[in-house]
Amino acid sequence: MDFEKLFLYKQWSDQRLFCAIYQINQSQFMQDYDFARQQLNHTMIVEELFRARLEQNPPPHSQTNTSDLPTLQELQQRIAISDSWFIEFVQNLTKEQLSQMLHFQFIDGKMGQLSVAEILFHMINHGTYHRGNIAHALHHAQVAHPADTYTVFIHKVETERRGS
Fold this sequence. Notes:
- With 164 residues, this protein is mainly alpha-helical.
- It has 6 helices and 2 strands, in the order ααααββαα.
- 64% of the residues lie in helices and 6% in strands.
């Protein structure tokens, strides 16, 4: 599995999503705007938790969301940093490193273990899931949802694949 390409895809999708969220008319659709921020906040916290696990650092959060939501600008900055970190992290991983099992405590207090590859897959899958949730809010707020599927991404960055 080419994790670098997958995290480049995530970065591309995240950037497109922020462009769409900025188009929400906040005076008319504040609930949808706040829902998008809440989903992004949760996504960011989960990424920061798993990054800490990959770095074998203590968890930076005690829950997977917060009552006070960061600004959209702050979330965009944190996600950009996270996307860049994951892209760099995966660039030189060996098969042995990908299969390494990490043992940790989830936020609910239960113990768990995942391989590095499983954590990376979870980060990609988790982001996709929440971008989909935000797409519903964009639709409700009458903002076009950007096409952010992997196939759109791969054909944009590898244009030769569009040939016959």
